[in-house]
Design brief:
The protein has a domain of 82 residues: GMP Synthetase, Chain A, domain 3. 32% of the residues lie in helices and 22% in strands. The structure holds zinc ion (ZN).
Length: 500
């Protein structure tokens, strides 16, 4: 084994590669106990890097600001946070040119209202030339790079400021504290990390990370055959929380239900994918915990977090967020998220359209007591829709699965205007009658389309192991656009959404 390893490393040294690639190869060949030591050492260093003075100062600040009640106080706080973002923007080629064309300076954009003198920024503009949005001064002391998942095009390269990770972590820590989850409480992580090589057939596809008191489990090895071992290991680990992609938690919950297993986790933190109402129901019912969902994006322009009362709050210390009526939607409570992040000075994006939509059905005061704005539902990406032969755009098709048993997970694929393929991973209880009902449910929402159901053993994931419920390659016909003028915006600048 050691000779194989040294040969592999030698080959790696001969080829252009990075230290990180080499580290991954080394990790892959180590025995499980050594992998856990290496993993723990990695996360120990990461923890020391992130849990720094910036993190602690920000967390203290957030624990204080969540008690603000006066909209003027929120607005004043956002103005303070906006200033370094706009100053950084003025150092970037894109905004230098834009400010010159508009005849304004950064001093003219000192308030949430002032931001509205700028046009909305679409993702494609950033994707074409990300370097136009980078402030070299903010990156002078080091920066990191992240990539979007790129499922709707090439991944977008996002440059993050040196203190961004610590600031972001403070928002996560505050949400954990809302349900009393402490820094050292035991947790399971079930996301897209390749903890164990995908080709491995080990019966224990998980590793301890002692630095964070967590058990990291591979989401790639979860199947009807292995689910029993997962549930058993989780119960023996006795975690306070599960941190997971919605699709991973849903898959685990589906197997627990269908195989009659026992699995109890008090809190489930989901993020990185749109959590559907059906997934929420399946997860909470079968894993026995309460979900706290988080919506954000790699571009670091917005955060929407569920509080302990289940309300989705737009986090006012993270961004200045506007909700713009969605073009092409006939629903009057559906809005695009347009947001200005208040954390990342390395790549400031002002009034950035994230490509995701939300539903807002009236302003509600949350029982948690925080005066943060709230939304009703995160609807997800504007391209997670099916186009019907009549040209209608239909989203949120998860309701078509409601009440159907034996579907561990599924994915809708559309490559033709008149035809759908539905991939289904069947579980206990799935049969022809369930399949016929699924087709009927979809037809009732989409009209007369050819719907072909394919039973598969697993559904491939995209970059970072992320799951997509709908993949459509159908070009969208232009839809009548509702007004997106400043007068029609719904803004969230302070205590509650303000409709103008
Ligand atoms: Zn609340």
């Amino acid at each position: 084994m050691m000779s194989q390893l040294s040969t592999r490393i030698r080959r790696s040294m001969q080829n252009p590669t990075t230290v990180r690639d080499l580290g991954k190869q080394l990790y892959t060949h180590l025995p499980p106990s050594a992998q856990e030591i290496l993993l723990s050492a990695y996360f120990f260093r990461k923890r020391r890097r992130i849990h720094n003075e910036v993190f602690h100062a920000k967390l203290t600040e957030l624990r204080a600001s969540e008690h603000l009640q006066d909209p003027d106080e929120f607005r004043a706080m956002q103005c303070v946070l906006l200033k370094p973002i706009v100053s950084a923007a003025a150092n970037t080629p894109h905004y230098r040119d834009l400010f010159a064309r508009l005849g304004i300076t950064s001093a003219d954009i000192s308030t949430p209202e002032g931001l509205r003198s700028l046009p909305i920024l679409d993702k494609d503009v950033v994707r074409r030339d990300p370097a136009q949005f980078v402030d070299p001064i903010a990156c002078a002391n080091g920066s990191t790079v992240a990539f979007t998942s790129g499922s709707t095009g090439s991944p977008l390269r996002v440059v993050l400021a040196p203190d961004y990770e610590a600031l972001e972590e403070a928002f996560t820590a505050r949400q954990c504290a809302w349900v009393g989850l402490g820094d050292r409480d035991r947790r399971i992580r079930l996301r897209g990390d390749l903890i164990v090589p995908g080709s491995s057939t080990t019966a224990k596809p998980w590793r301890r990370n002692f630095a964070d008191n967590e058990l990291r489990m591979s989401s790639y090895h979860l199947s009807p055959k292995t689910a029993r071992y997962y549930a058993d290991r989780i119960m023996r680990f006795s975690p306070q929380a599960l941190i997971a992609y919605p699709s991973s938690a849903n898959l685990l919950a589906s197997f627990v239900r269908d195989l009659g297993l026992k699995c109890r986790i008090p809190f489930i933190f989901t993020s990185s994918e749109t959590l559907t109402s059906l997934q929420r129901e399946t997860i909470e019912r079968n894993l026995g915990g309460v979900i706290l969902d988080h919506y954000g994006c790699t571009e670091a322009t917005v955060a929407i977090q569920q509080c302990e009362r289940g309300t989705y709050h737009v986090v006012p210390e993270y961004s200045i967020t506007e909700f713009v009526p969605t073009s092409g939607s006939t629903a009057h409570d559906v809005f695009d998220i347009v947001s200005t992040g208040l954390l990342n000075t390395a790549m400031p994006l002002l009034r950035y359209r994230t490509g995701d939509r939300v539903r807002i059905a009236g302003d509600q005061r949350c029982a948690c007591g925080r005066a943060f704005p709230s939304i009703t539902e995160i609807l997800g990406r504007d391209d997670d829709i099916v186009v019907t032969p009549r040209g209608d755009h239909v989203g949120r098709l998860d309701h078509a699965y409601k009440g159907l048993s034996g579907i561990a997970e599924s994915q809708i694929r559309q490559e033709s205007p008149s035809e759908l393929r539905v991939l289904v991973v069947p579980s206990t209880g799935y049969n022809d009658a369930v399949e016929a009902q699924l087709i009927a449910n979809l037809r009732s929402r989409l009209g007369d389309m050819d719907i072909l159901v394919e039973r598969v053993s697993a559904i491939p994931r995209g970059r970072n192991g992320k799951f997509r419920a709908v993949i459509s390659t159908i070009p969208r016909s232009p839809q009548p656009s509702r007004s997106t003028s400043a007068e029609s915006l719904t803004d969230v600048c302070a205590g509650s959404p303000i409709r103008r």
